Amino acid sequence: MMKKNSINTILVTTNFSEKSNNAIKMAANIATRHSARIIIFHSINNHFLIDRTGKQVIGAETIKENSEKTENALSDLKSSLTSEFPTLHFETIIKNDSLVNGINDTIDLENVDLIVSGTSGQQKFAQLILGSLSYEILNGANCSVLLVPENCVKYSFEKILVTVRVLDDLSEKVDLSLAIAKKNKGVISLLGISSEDDLLTITDAYQEIRKNLAVSGQEYESHFLLTRDKATQISKFSKDDLADIIILNYQDEDSWKSIFSENFLKHIINNTDIPLFFLKNKNNTSNSDGNAGFDITLPCPG
């Protein structure tokens, strides 16, 4: 669980694309405000042959060549970032594993508080079936995740949209939101959103958070919406409210939907063009089996 008011270590994934570079820029700006260190993470794409003896690597020479290219590319990237952000501490990590396993190993070893990853927004048909990399990271990573749209060009959070739609980890969400607001000198926009089924519980939680914000002295606005289509309304409200970031709990209310439908998480990712911060309580996460089904890893440079 992220400690109160604390973002000390940020892991940002890269595949050396413009989308990844934008996520790194976002991570660097956050790290500057929070005095955090940054780990630049890359997972090498290995190829495997499954036979009766188990999984075997194909092409050791190719893997070695990819590793060397990756190390050089990360070294160049680190040098460039150190020149642009001289007050920050950058580290690089290469993992030769499935994407989620490599990330979670690093989370454990380096006590990572936040993962920052770029996202392209709308998923193509194949991604709806297999899952995009950003969606895979969101589902499998054992800490909070910030998804940064490729076209995002604002790296400060002056208007922070905080949603109250489920009851999990609300006190941690308030602490996090206050910390981000303080570091950005921002305003919190509190949005209670519920269906008729959970109206009483969400209303009570929403009113309690309003009291806490008032006591904290933090500048805030508050709104409440009654709807069953929460993802659509949160996205629409964020645009109307000119929000710079949305703070969400990691709970997927519509996880029962088929892979051809948009559950809450996919819908909010696909229809929102500002960063999405998904709060995950590290105490409640479990290691994912990154080798189940298929391997999806970030490609090597070149």
Please characterize this protein's 3D structure:
Helix content is 39%, strand content 23%. The protein is globular and about 60 Å long. The chain contains nine helices and twelve strands. The protein has helices spanning 18-34, 60-84, 99-110, 125-130, 133-140, 170-184, 199-216, 230-240, 264-270; strands spanning 9-13, 37-43, 48-51, 54-57, 90-95, 114-119, 144-149, 159-164, 187-194, 220-226, 245-249, 276-279. The strands form two sheets. Strands 5-2-1-6-7-12-11-8-9-10 form a ten-stranded mixed β-sheet, sandwiched between helices. α6 runs parallel beside α7 and α8 (230-240) runs parallel beside α9. By secondary structure, it is α/β, with parallel strands linked by helices. It folds into two domains: 1-152 and 275-302, Rossmann fold, CATH 3.40.50; 155-272, HUPs (Rossmann fold).
